[in-house]
Amino acid sequence: MSVNIYVATSAEDLKKFPDFAIVKIEGQKSKTLRQFYEHIAEVLEFPDYFGFNLDSLDELLNDLEWIDDHKLALYFCHTEDFISQERNPEKLSNLLHMLDATAEDWKWLDEDEEVFAKELVFIFEDSPRLRDLLKQEEIGFAFISRDADSAG
């Protein structure tokens, strides 16, 4: 599997994705999973049928037909706050695994399917909490900056 999750050590790192539409997900607006669902639904302009749960999020991120851009990067900033007030820590782990799998799924889209292919990546602002969780969950990631540590 290739890398689908990147860690940015500064906002300058985003310049390494010049062909991507970058959508910002604010960690301060996503301290719980419900807040995250509400925030991502707003910034990605999800259809009205979004169910505000992981299965529905997975379904919509595997669709994205209402988004014209073919290359999309979701940039999560303030990751120290991201899903920081959720009582069940497994929920963040499940979300990260789903995001990684969804980005990978787009790479293997069958040419016969009547879906316009997208390239989807997830970029997280660096924080020790996020790095530790990605390593603990064995989710592959890479630092964007050449000066930072190598891939996790």
Automatic annotation (TrEMBL):
Q: Which SUPFAM superfamilies match?
A: Barstar-related
Ranges for domain Barstar (barnase inhibitor):
21-115
Name the protein family. Answer: Belongs to the barstar family.
Q: In its UniProt entry, what is this protein called? A: Barstar (barnase inhibitor) domain-containing protein
State the organism named in the record.
Nibrella viscosa
